[in-house]
Design goal:
This protein is mainly beta. Helix content is about 5%, strand content about 35%. The protein has a five-stranded antiparallel beta sheet. Strands 3-4 form a two-stranded antiparallel ribbon. The chain binds pyroglutamic acid.
Length: about 160
């Protein structure tokens, strides 16, 4: 199993969350909420209003998201779905745990450390003009910015 931190459309209540709950695609267990220890720019870009965490540590904000434990099958599906490694690359980042929700809510399941290493879909393949976009800290497709996510299936 693998720890993965999602900050975009895969979060609860966001347009691609259904993937995380589809047993045909593999297993994904919600573990808790956290934020990146390092700061990154999180922008909403392209015609699809796609959230991208840009691989520029130290610039931007601490990014909020959700921690899941996923199996090999789900990880492989997510790599394909996120067009990894072309559009995003899957990197390991340190995540500060803000809330933990282990199985049966047992506090013993919470890692002893306050941080956890997780896979994250970030990108080095961004356009320079994206650097002048708004840097978000907590992505919401339905936010007041009005930049509703449009699935590539609908584009
Ligand atoms: N999906 C991945 C990366 C950006 C996106 O929309 C995620 O939610 O973390």
């Amino acid at each position: 199993m693998h720890n993965i931190f999602v900050y975009g459309t895969l979060k609860k209540g966001q347009p691609n969350y259904h993937i995380m709950t589809d047993p045909k695609l593999g297993k994904a267990f919600f573990k808790g909420r956290g934020q990146t220890v390092d700061k990154y720019p999180l922008v909403i870009a392209e015609e699809g209003n796609i959230p991208f965490l840009l691989e520029i540590p130290g610039t931007g904000r601490h990014i909020a998201g959700e921690i899941y434990l996923v199996d090999d099958q789900m990880l492989q599906f997510l790599d394909e779905f996120e067009c990894c490694p072309d559009m995003y690359q899957r990197t390991i980042k340190r995540i500060e745990i803000l809330e933990w929700e282990g199985k049966d809510d047992s506090p013993e399941e919470r890692p002893a450390a306050n941080t956890i290493e997780c896979f994250v879909y970030s990108t080095t393949s961004y356009k320079p003009k994206w650097l002048s976009l708004t840097y978000h800290d907590c992505y919401d497709s339905y936010g007041t910015h009005g930049l509703l996510f449009i699935s590539h299936l609908d584009r």
